[in-house]
Design goal:
The chain is α/β, with parallel strands linked by helices. The chain contains seven helices and six strands; from the N terminus they run ααβαβαβααβββα. It has one domain: HUPs (Rossmann fold), CATH 3.40.50. 38% of the residues lie in helices and 10% in strands. The protein has a six-stranded mixed β-sheet with strand order 3-2-1-4-6-5. β1, α3 and β2 form a beta-alpha-beta unit. The longest helix has 19 residues. The protein is globular and about 50 Å long.
């Protein structure tokens, strides 16, 4: 799509609900669009909406090899509830072995460069494989999640991956996400009840204290402006 087409699509979706956004992009892209789910609260909301619109819609996730046990449990519970198969993409084991053997098992604590390298092998490369047959992807970004996400639009051109990126929950608040989860009985990660608003790899995620930013528990040893793994580089 051209930037002009994306601008027109955004204009046509102004004020639309996330469900309306999903219906529109599913109609437009057909089997060339998929939900990329990290199993976070927002992605679980989108999974529920998507399955109610089209039970055959494609959903995939990335298994970095360092996820919480609770996250694996959620993949299973979600697949069972919606009677769907969440596709799982893994990193290439030879590259991970080489990285760990050269830089150490917990290299990401040593420098931002190491952490981003680890994220690249465990997340970015598998994501690129998932994108191979897609023209667009759906994700659960919200403008209020982080300083790096404050300017997101409902539909964007993802320059890094050469795809259209759809953010149906861009304008939603955290309160709206949880209201939907409770109203529709959407399965969610039990770690959310233990102070983990944002959940990624186990060694790079901690619970937050009351009053802290929702992303404070992700790569907590880094500055806020570096706290992206590269999936949503802006």
């Amino acid at each position: 799509m051209t930037q002009e087409e994306i601008s027109k699509l955004n204009a046509s979706l102004e004020g639309a609900s996330p469900q309306e956004v999903l219906k529109k992009v599913l109609q437009k892209f057909g089997d060339k669009i998929a939900l990329s789910s990290s199993l976070g609260a927002e992605d679980q909301v989108l999974t529920d909406m998507l399955m109610k619109i089209n039970p055959q819609a494609r959903i995939f996730t990335l298994d970095t090899g360092r996820l919480f046990p609770e996250t694996y449990d959620l993949i299973d519970r979600t697949s069972r509830k919606y009677k769907t198969k969440i596709e799982v993409f893994f990193p290439e084991h030879q590259k991970v072995e080489k990285m760990v053997n050269e830089k150490g098992i917990n290299l990401f604590y040593e420098s931002v460069e190491n952490r981003k390298f680890c994220c690249h092998l465990r997340k970015i490369e598998p994501l690129q494989r998932a994108f191979a047959e897609l023209d667009a992807w759906i994700c659960g970004l919200r403008a209020g999640q982080a300083v790096t996400r404050k300017d997101i639009a409902l539909v964007e051109w993802d320059e890094n991956n050469g795809l259209v990126k759809v953010n149906p929950l861009a304008t939603w608040s955290e309160e709206a996400v949880w209201a939907y989860i409770h109203e529709h009985k959407v399965p969610y990660n039990v770690l959310h009840d233990k102070g983990f608003p944002s959940i990624g790899c186990q060694p790079c995620t901690r619970a937050i204290e009351p009053g802290e930013d929702v992303r404070a528990g992700r790569w907590w040893w880094e500055n806020p402006d570096t706290k992206e793994c590269g999936l949503h580089k802006r």
